[in-house]
Structure formats: structure tokens, C-alpha cells
Design goal:
Length: about 325
């Protein structure tokens, strides 16, 4: 079996590649290396292409003779999307449609698209897959748009598809020098540098975090199980809810960190409570949480310690820089 993974040098893509190498699949993939790192993958075993998903001609060329495709590449910057909407929507819509179309041209059997819980927006929790979607930012809108286009193209051209909805995945290989995303990684990186972590708003935002190891076997089912077709499935726990304030205190205890967080104004369009139901994943994917939040945080701490703290890199342009733009980004406070 030949699997192609977009974003293969990124966090999710590289872990998925390693998972399939262990299963003796032929693994190929692409990454534009903006958010990915070649150190994350084994170039001796993976057929790697440095490519941008928005390049349709390139995507047609490199997805030939592929059996299944996982589209994991994304500029996964929900908060940034209200201030760099062109960047984010080009990547998440144009890039996704380019990948889907190339896969269809090359007669790939199945496409799995990694969406986001941002698709749900500001609705009652826990989010369920059949809820009416009300995304509140360009990132969420772009994810829903890509989902809908995939459904239409797959129906028209008789290509199998599934849509995975991971939420707040954490674990080794996650990028921790990006100031725009990955709150756990950002906090640990700052704390290990003896710097005050930044919390937006009152810190009572409610989240759940998914360990990468509990996501991979779910994606495997969505990619390879002949009985799981045309499904949208939340992937991640629906227990161990935690506020950002509670996350800070948990990490500070683990790291013996004594500085208080710095509170800034809340970010525009940030949903206060965002948690998903895992009922469907349990039913059709056999999902269960095997890694507790405490263990998952320990894995992240060990990974960042082993690889060393890093300065934050502002690699993405602020297309809209005005009075509504978070001061932490304008003044590069991380």
C-alpha cells in the first residue's frame, strides 16, 4: 500500500509517516517546510518532495501511483486567520482543492482530510459531528469550505473520502517556536526559558488536549478500513476538560516555575468553550484515551528539554495590523 501525506515534515504528518513505516507501507509526502522540519522524517525511507500544496501541476506530478492520501498540511493558525486571511484561506482552500483534484486525476482510491474543531464555532458543547456549523473566523470557514468541496468532488468522481476532526493534538515533534499557535508548546518553551507565559483574556477558555498516539490509529482506520467511508469523525478525548489558567498551574507545578503569567486582552473571535464528543469515534473507530493529559504534558516537556528551548519565529505576515491586532504579535512579545 502506498500512502501520500501532505505536510509530512510537520507534527501530525511526520508522526503518521512513522506509524505507516512501521506497518511497512510505501510512504511519500510533501511539505513546503514553512511549518515543517526535515529532522522530523527519515529521508532514507520516505519519498519526500518539497512542494506547496497550492501548486496544482506539482501535486499532479507527485501523487501518481498513490493508493491513499492524507491531507494533513495546513497553516493551522485559527487566531491569526482574522489578521492574515489571505494567507490562511489560500492555503486551506486553494491548497486543499489542489490536493483533492490531483488525487482524483491520479485515481487515488481514498482521501482523508484533516479538518479542525474550528469548523464548529461558537455553539453548545460538546461538539457533535452532525451539529449545525457556525465557524467564527476565516480559518474555521476555510476548513468547512474544503470539507464541502471534497464531498462534492468525491461524489462526482466516485472517490472514497473521510474527514477527521482532530482537536488540540500535542506530542513530540510539535512546533514550539511558533508564536501564533500551540498553547501547550508555547507555555513550556517560555517557562523553560524562565519567561512569563502569556494568557489572552481571563484564561477561563475551556479545552481538551489530544495526545498524538491516541490520534494515529483513528486516522489509520479512516484511511484503510473498507467499512468506514464518507464519515466525519471527531478525534480526541471528551474528558479531562481544562481551562488555560488550569493548564498554566499544571505546567508550573511540573516545571517548578514560580513566575506569574502575563494577561493580555482576549483575542478577537476566540471561542470560550470548545470541546468535542468522542461518541462517534468510539463507535466506529474503537477510540479510547490511552494517554492521560498528565502523561502527554510530560512527553511534551521531555521533548522540548531534549531538543532545547527556541526563540520564537514570526514567519507569517500580519496582513492586517491595526488596533484590533493582538499586541503580543505586533510587538513580538514572545
Amino acid at each position: 500500500m502506498h500512502i501520500f501525506i501532505t505536510g509530512i515534515a510537520g507534527f501530525l504528518g511526520s508522526n503518521l509517516a512513522e506509524y505507516y513505516l512501521k506497518k511497512n507501507f510505501k510512504v511519500s509526502g510533501c511539505d513546503n517546510l514553512v511549518g515543517g522540519n526535515l529532522d522530523n522524517i527519515d529521508l532514507k525511507k520516505i519519498n519526500f518532495f518539497e512542494a506547496n500544496c497550492e501548486d496544482f501541476e506539482m501535486m499532479k506530478k507527485i501523487t501518481k501511483d498513490v493508493d491513499i492520501l492524507c491531507h494533513a498540511a495546513a497553516y493551522a493558525h485559527e487566531g491569526l486567520s482574522s489578521f492574515s486571511p489571505v494567507l490562511i484561506t489560500n492555503n486551506n482552500v486553494t491548497g486543499s482543492v489542489s490536493v483533492f483534484t490531483a488525487a482524483i486525476v491520479n485515481k487515488v482510491k481514498r482521501i482523508v482530510y484533516c479538518s479542525s474543531m474550528a469548523r464548529y464555532g461558537n455553539i453548545s458543547i460538546p461538539y457533535k459531528e452532525d451539529d449545525v456549523l457556525k465557524p467564527v473566523d476565516p480559518y474555521g470557514v476555510s476548513k468547512v469550505a474544503a470539507e464541502n468541496i471534497l464531498k462534492i468532488l468525491s461524489s462526482t468522481h466516485k472517490i472514497e473520502y473521510n474527514i477527521a476532526v482532530p482537536h488540540n493534538i500535542i506530542g513530540p515533534k510539535q512546533k514550539y517556536d511558533d508564536p501564533y499557535r500551540n498553547v501547550v508548546a508555547i507555555m513550556i518553551n517560555l517557562m523553560l526559558q524562565k519567561r512569563n507565559p502569556i494568557i489572552y483574556g481571563d484564561g477561563n477558555q475551556k479545552r481538551t488536549f489530544s495526545d498524538i498516539d491516541d490520534c494515529l490509529y483513528c486516522l489509520d482506520k479512516l484511511l484503510t478500513d473498507p467499512n468506514v467511508i464518507s464519515q466525519v469523525v471527531n478525534i480526541g478525548p471528551d474528558e479531562e476538560y481544562i481551562s488555560i489558567n488550569e493548564l498554566y498551574y499544571l505546567l508550573s507545578n511540573k516545571l517548578k516555575f514560580n513566575l506569574e503569567p502575563k494577561y493580555l486582552e482576549e483575542r478577537p473571535n476566540e471561542v470560550k468553550a470548545a470541546t468535542c464528543s468522542s461518541d462517534k469515534a468510539r463507535k466506529i473507530l474503537g477510540y479510547k484515551t490511552s494517554v492521560t493529559l498528565h502523561k502527554s504534558l510530560d512527553k511534551m516537556i521531555n521533548y522540548i528539554r531534549e531538543n532545547g528551548t527556541k526563540s520564537f519565529k514570526y514567519n507569517y505576515p500580519l496582513e492586517i495590523n491595526n488596533e484590533f491586532t493582538p499586541i503580543s504579535w505586533k510587538q513580538k512579545l514572545f
